[in-house]
Amino acid sequence: MQRHIRATLATHIEIIRQLEALTADIERLALRIAATLSSGGRVFWIGNGGSAADCQHLAAEMVGRFQRERDGLSAIALTTDTSILTSVANDFGFEAIFARQIEALGRPGDLLMGLSTSGNSPNVLAAMQRAADLGLYRAGLTGARGGRLVEHTDHCLIVPSTNTARIQEAHILIGHLLCDLVETRFATATP
């Protein structure tokens, strides 16, 4: 078991090291999120399974606080309302659960952040298409080669791994970096 633990940790560390190549892209996305919020836009988060939980986590960091005192930031996880998710899935199909919410809530000047480890989640892709129709900026976090999400976003960060768990670990680190960088722009005091 210890050998397995060491091997997993080594793989995790190597993938995290490779994220250094995304430094400029992470900064650019953080600046875009900050500009969206500064101009009165909102950040919507979507994903499935563990990525759905990450969306809820990262939206909470923005609405509440990450590390610094500041006003709440307008971030909404579209993964959390079970009545909407189940009624839309029942009436329109599971692929529509996020697209329908973007149709109802999204407006030009907002930003849609989609998390998909494969980059091929049909409901994330459908939401990205609807967001494009409505004039939202579309960003993504994915893994492997990016999947179809790369084609459906304005800005996509690809974690260099095919292992779902390692991709999700990198996504939460990237998400925390985004929260930290954005929060710095809005902080009223340092801890």
UniProtKB/TrEMBL annotation:
The gene is gmhA. GO terms for molecular function: isomerase activity. The keyword Cell inner membrane does not apply. Catalyzes the isomerization of sedoheptulose 7-phosphate in D-glycero-D-manno-heptose 7-phosphate. It comes from the Bacteria. Belongs to the SIS family. GmhA subfamily. This is Phosphoheptose isomerase. InterPro entries: GmhA/DiaA, Phosphoheptose_Isoase, SIS_dom, SIS_dom_sf, SIS_GmhA/DiaA_subfam.
